[in-house]
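Subject: complex prediction, re-run

Hi both,

The earlier run crashed halfway through, so I resubmitted it with identical inputs.
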Amino acid sequence: MKILLTNDDGIYAPGIYAIYKELIKFADVTVVAPDSEQSSVGHGITLNNPLFVRKVSRKDKFFGYAVSGKPADCVKLGIEVILKKQKPDLVVSGINFGNNDGCSIFYSGTVAGAREGALMGVDSLALSLDCWENPDFTESAKVGAKLTKLVAKNKLPKGTFLNVNIPQGKIKGILPTRQGTEPIHGQFEKRRSPHEREYYWMSGKNPTHVNDNSIDTYALRNGYVTVTGVHCSLTDEHFLSKLQEWKF
Amino acid sequence: MKILLTNDDGIYAPGIYAIYKELIKFADVTVVAPDSEQSSVGHGITLNNPLFVRKVSRKDKFFGYAVSGKPADCVKLGIEVILKKQKPDLVVSGINFGNNDGCSIFYSGTVAGAREGALMGVDSLALSLDCWENPDFTESAKVGAKLTKLVAKNKLPKGTFLNVNIPQGKIKGILPTRQGTEPIHGQFEKRRSPHEREYYWMSGKNPTHVNDNSIDTYALRNGYVTVTGVHCSLTDEHFLSKLQEWKF
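This time it finished cleanly. Structure:
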């Protein structure tokens, strides 16, 4: 089994190394990941800058290819250039340091890595750990490897990928879920630079969570691994019939 | 009617000025746009850098607020800080220089501007001109203003926004469409820098277009303005029932 592995925390992050060690037990893994942290870059791609690629070692052994771009760049360049247009069996993105459930899905570079895989016709999954300090990727890497094997066995529909979020600490189980749609409200702290210029720093206010284990935002905080099937066809089909009645 | 106007080509781009001139004929328009070009940044947001804001004039008159961030930042900061949490009636994003139909929707900062508006609970639309050189935004600005009025009149479902693409030249009509799902394949040109380092430059190979005016990619190239209702709930509901049968 051939796996292309990427992330958005960068090729030197602990999360990608943890899942790598699990995946190489059963697969041929090619790592193509950003050379620096690319958190919250969404599905951005690099069209107006060159992409440099260099080989990276970890623990004195060749680990993978660092790209001066974003996760979606890594998947595109990984398949087209590094794998010489030979599609892998799977694209795995992560493990992200921090949750990517609910509307985080729009901002996440990790999720975009998996979406890019799906767009290129490869079964893909994004893995994220719900933790913001002192992460321990041991358990989440095992869960990630288990789900990777399940995807390889069961396959995914064309244009659909899995967005997986894993709680830190005790895991109650694995649940198929829906993406939470409650927005993350931006909060802006006004500050003053050493040069006396005002600036703003954005943070996010966590959304309200409905008490419903079928929604990823709730089930994750309730201790479950959430597995959401995400598709790449964004048309609101229900609204389309109404739109057809508009007088243009 | 209060409108928040943004784009991804930057506050000095011709497209945003063209639609601004049309919108101020019937609305109170607040421009909050990136201070530099932010094409293909997708739905990225700025969490690890400060956001600076400055006032910008065009033709010796106050035009709007330039933000050192991405389109989604501009919408968040525009509503939270500049409009002091007072939601506008509409968010308009564009007019983009270049098409954002089909799978471009994932990479586009312009589309992300409208999606962020929708996430914040505001009826929103993204406007893009299908043209890559010598753009003339005169006609597309009129079409954009017309569609903006229609959205204000008819309203949109919660969490759904409009992705509008407008052909350059003669317009055959306005069609409700679906997002094309054919992927845009990245192509990488290998080059050598003046410092003798190899690099790659990405371009995109246009997707194949099915002969079907209900798909935006085809209808746009066939001379129609395409209006696609895009939703922010990405769960593949059909696949969810299959996923529930997986043995976790």
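Residues 128 and 165 of chain B are 5 Å apart (CA to CA).

- K.
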